[in-house]
Design goal:
Blueprint (H helix, E strand, L loop, with lengths): L1 E5 L2 H14 L5 E5 L6 H11 L14 E6 L2 E7 L6 H6 L2 H5 L4 E5 L13 E7 L5 E5 L1
Parallel strand pairs: 2-5, 2-6, 4-5
Antiparallel strand pairs: 1-7, 3-4, 6-7
Helix pairs in contact: 1-2
């Protein structure tokens, strides 16, 4: 388990970039944390660190956004609007989890029981208006 304390969104993004630089290409990363904890900010850094230059936006309305450059692909999955776990199957989420590429899931607590055991879990906690605690498990 690793713990990081971020003092501002820029530090959260930079920490995400360091994570992204270490990704091999088939990881599943589950992000847990309340609204405003910095999940999308962390993903922006991860995508940049993985070598993708596109601007990352929260895919809340489409649920899954794909970012690809060359042979590198990241699926940014946002389950905020998911009401129940069975909807994940209906939208084909589990097909994505078995596809090549990095899969990063916001609001992963909504499908926590269905996540593969090798999933990297990252917990973001609001400490203050700007500070965040980030724990990788």
């Amino acid at each position: 388990m690793a713990r990081f304390l971020s003092n501002c969104p820029e530090e959260t993004k930079e920490f995400g970039k360091k994570i992204g630089e270490k990704l091999k290409g088939d990881e599943i990363i589950a992000l847990f944390g309340e609204l405003g904890a910095g999940k999308t900010t962390l993903i922006k850094g991860m995508v940049a660190g993985f070598g993708i230059k596109k601007v990352v936006k929260s895919p809340s309305f489409v649920m899954i956004a794909e970012y690809e450059e060359g042979r590198k692909k990241i699926y940014h999955i946002d389950l905020y609007r998911l009401r129940e776990e069975k909807e994940a199957e209906e939208i084909g989420l589990f097909d994505y989890l078995n596809s090549p590429g990095v899969k990063v899931i916001e609001w992963a607590e909504k499908i926590e029981n269905s996540l593969p055991k090798e999933t990297i879990r990252i917990y973001l906690k609001i400490i203050s208006e700007k500070e965040r605690e980030i724990i990788i498990d």
